[in-house]
Amino acid sequence: HGESLGDGITGFAGSKNAEQMSRLALMGDLRLAGQRDELRVFCQPKIDMKTGQIVGAEALIRWQHPTLGMVSPTHFIKLAEQSGLIIDLTKWMLERCFSWLQKWKHDGIRETLAINLSPHDLLSSSIVCDIGKWMEQWKICPEAVEFELTESALVEDPCAALDVLTRLKAIGVKLLLDDFGTGYASLSYLQRFPFDVIKIDQSFILPMLENADSAAIVRSTIELGHILGRHVVAEGVESEDVWRCLQEQGCDLAQGYVISKPLPIEQFQGWKAEWQAA
Ligand code: C2E
Ligand code: CA
Ligand code: CA
Ligand code: CA
Question: Which atom, in ligand 1's list, is nearest to the CA of 41?
């Protein structure tokens, strides 16, 4: 299940024109990807650093392209946003994720699944109603559902975003401020929006053992989060040394290759059983 094929797209983009052509072709393909059953849900475990328990996962979309192989969302989410197709992709993810949550609940598994929302999703007037309706249909416990939003989802229309987030919170789901520290006004958004969890961006986590500034930013973000009564997640934890350092600093949750790369959601519970046995 190759994470590695994600850069296939650059292969046929030799010049600017070729790049535009390939973008257009890719857009056309993406429109059909749903019907052609080429979209996949991968997920990456989230682990509680104090107990060592797997407490949930983040859902990450993948596109199994017929010729390019497994395409990373970094290559097509932007395209989907520009074309408005993201609304359909999000709906597809929501449905799939809710059906998995229903299955997990049926199997007695109480884990959270976090779904990424795009800026466009927050501007869609029906998003909260749709989510509420689907959660009722699939009989999903709100405690099992998390939404990850980046600052970019909030800048376009902060009032509308606040309205959507407030209504989502009223359903009982958790909200995560994703890629924390990379935007223009992270602190201000933390103050103005009802986020439960801060997710420190991997650009601070990855170099934190070599770079004193990154280390200081990570340390103070964990402290800040805790002072504000928020949980803190670190993403991009690739080594045991980084893991230990974060643990010493009281970081609540971690995600990263040191635990697992994103894997097909079908394999998640099996992976977890093996991992816990080891
Ligand atoms: P993100 O939400 O910040 O997700 C984290 C990304 O970091 C994922 O890339 C994940 O595979 C990668 N990652 C996880 N652990 C490590 C690690 O230890 N080291 C390193 N270097 N990377 C790690 P991915 O899956 O390629 O997704 C990229 C971005 O695409 C996501 O960033 C998110 O913004 C977007 N995305 C993915 N799925 C969806 C989706 O369903 N909807 C929306 N709107 N966006 C999505
Ligand atoms: Ca995310
Ligand atoms: Ca992130
Ligand atoms: Ca990111």
Answer: 41
